[in-house]
Amino acid sequence: MVDNNSFFFQEMSKSKLWFGLLPELLSIGHKWLDTNSALLHNSLEERQKPFLFTAITLWNQALTATSEGKAYFAAHTLRSILERVAFLWATSKEIGFNPEDIINSYEGDDKKVRRQTTDKVIDAACSKDSDISILYNEMLSRYFSHLSHLDVITISETKRNKDKLKTGAQLLPMLLLFDVGNCLIKVIENLLDENNVSVKPFTGGRTGHEFKAVDYMRIASYVMCEKHSRKKAISLSLLLPNISDFKGEFGITDIYRGGMDLKRFGLPSDSPKPDTLKGFSKFAIGDANEKRIVVDLKKQHEKGEEYEIRWPKEWDISSSAIALIARNPKQEYAIFDYVTEFVRLFK
After folding, report:
1. Has residue 345 got a pLDDT over 60?
2. 32: CB partners within 8 A, 6+ apart
3. Could you tell me which of 196, 163, 156 has the C-alpha nearest to residue 40?
4. Which of 329, 248, 319, 243 is nearest to 284 (CA)?
5. What does the alpha-carbon distance between residue 305 and residue 128 come to, in Å, rounded to a whole number?
6. Residues 6+ apart with CB under 8 A from 58
7. Residue that wins the pLDDT comparison between 170 and 306
8. Core vs surface per residue 126-150: b (16+ CB within 10 A) or e
9. How many whole angstroms separate alpha carbon 228 and alpha carbon 234?
10. 102-113, pLDDT tens digit by residue?
């Protein structure tokens, strides 16, 4: 991990909540970039190389700043990284703009030409990586003042979700850092592919099985911005056979803010008392105070029952639950403007 002595990253890594895997995923991304960018060194045109290696250097410096708890400082570098990523997309063989022409336009005195060139380069990059459009045009441009001022938002000590909001304010730049780094990874994958070099995808996690880091991040951002409502639940789709002290098989389907759905498949005569099912909540929220968990029997039929397990809406989902979902994705979680969504939670 980058800066193993960082107190901030160490404390995050110990957490069982959704952000517990963020330092590890950023570290895996750092190693991927350092390893695979070296493969491009002899393949790029000389005028492309500074754009690639400056972007990687800036991203690594931003990651170091974040590991020291200075995430807001790091966030200010992300737009300049994206501009270099966009240049690499635009001058790749796939799009084919001449690097010399682009650089000459940037170095000229005509502001209008420089602005038009930037727009052309960004538009070309967005045609190959739609995330750049959202990150560059929405989060890091139109809403950049929101991001830069989140650190001075005063959260009332009496506010019910004050701890969640404080944590989110610290971690929001880390999500942006991950997404900008992933744009850098995507353009490197493309450049390597143009040179007939195949590389392993950016995956990882400490759950015993690999999962797509991007899937994990999308689900985590949904959780942070509380978009996992009952109507937009996260699908776990976990089947649990042979649970001791119970008869039948149990399926956990949807997880949402404040609850989850549980199904039992078996004989109606073997149905358990609802209160005995509180422990199944650990698959969503980890170890929790069962006194504040409620189980309701919603439906009973010849093949079993359907239950709803509820807990306080301010409780967060565990990192293990998100990693399980990211290992076997059943639905797509596209990137969204979570700067705006998170700012909305403060109001």
Report:
1. yes
2. 185, 202
3. 196
4. 319
5. 47
6. 77, 80, 81, 84
7. 306
8. bebbebbebbbebbbeeebebbeeb
9. 6
10. 999 999 999 999
Domain-wise residue ranges, the chain:
7-212+334-346, 234-316
Count of C-beta atoms within a 10 Å radius of residue 279: 15
Dist CA 122 CA 119 (whole Å): 5
Question: Could you please report the per-residue DSSP string of 125-146?
Answer: HHTT-HHHIIIIIIIIIITHHH
Encoded tokens for 21? 């895997």
CA distances from 246 to 224, 242, 243, 249, 307 (A): 34, 8, 6, 8, 15
pLDDT in tens, 259-300: 999 999 999 999 999 999 999 999 999 988 899 999 999 999
Measured CA to CA, the distance from residue 320 to residue 17 in angstroms comes to: 8
User: Which residue do the tokens 């492309």 mark?
Assistant: 48
Can you tell me whether residue 34 is helix, strand or coil? helix
The residue count of the chain comes to 347
C-alpha to C-alpha distance for 178 and 24, rounded to whole angstroms = 11
- Tokens, residue 84: 């270099």
Q: Which amino acid belongs to residue 132?
A: I
Contacts of 226 (CB under 8 A, 6+ apart): 257, 345
Contacts 24+ apart (CB under 8 A), 157-165: 160/314, 161/314, 161/345, 164/314, 164/316, 165/345, 165/346
Rounded distance between C-alpha atoms, residue 259 and residue 229, angstroms: 9
The pLDDT of residue 53 is above 60: yes
Q: Are 326 and 208 in contact (CB under 8 A)?
A: no
> Helices (DSSP H) in 150-269: which residue ranges?
162-194, 213-224
Residues forming a β-bridge with 260: 255, 309
Show the CA angle centred on residue 78, arms to residues 71 and 334, nearest 5°: 95
